[in-house]
Amino acid sequence: MRIIAVDNIEDMGEAAADLIIEKIISKPDCVLGLATGSTPLSLYIRLIRAYEQKTVSYKEVKSFNLDEYRGLEQDNPNSYHYYMKENLFKYIDILPENTYLPSGTMDADEAIRTYKELLKDHQIDIQVLGIGTNGHIGFNEPGVSFESSVHLVELDEQTIEDNSRYFESLDDVPKQAITMGIADIMAAKSIILMAGTENKKNALRCVLEGPVTDECPASILRKHKGLTIVALKNVLNEISLNLL
Ligand SMILES: N[C@@H]1[C@@H](O)[C@H](O)[C@@H](COP(=O)(O)O)O[C@@H]1O
To answer: What is the pTM of this model?
Structure first.
């Protein structure tokens, strides 16, 4: 495991973007695993800037997102399809047909089968991850099997509450999602885990110190040989001073 300690959110985005841009330059047709939430926004700003400055082109890149809420149309501002379009895809030259997310509206079994098939044919070179306050990655909630592939999830109460800040009310937050499984995430060649806020401290601690348990799904990441954690210095310091 490699740890990059940064001073602020902007530096966190820059550190993650540097790793991704380096990969795209060496492998222009690489496959990126992408995440949503507030954490990767500073990364996407950097990736857009790199395109504008002609440092990089995404023409041959493919992307797979971790998850999507059930029941939200692609043009719903709270859907992850919408998030990706508005925060990254529309500003860069990635081809729309090379950007994949699970369907939120297709019959669930069909959506799962379709996404599994697509993932079977593509190994992810770099998987970007945020982390939930309960240790979820993607929407793999506590209790998930480490062997899981793409599946339908009943969202944890904690997750619904955490994510309700984006919705008008708690009742508007979808109760289900389709997510890549833990096995899909662990199959990526390398993983960048980003953690930028104080409320992620406990979840991050379980990645850094273990134990590996499905009660904290992210704890399995410590077994991945290509894991890089990019996190705020003050959050890391609070977990364990001797890490830095
Ligand atoms: N499914 C996403 C996760 O992939 C993300 O890591 C998490 C944290 O979001 P934030 O970065 O906004 O704290 O939110 C959602 O639940």
So the answer is: 0.96
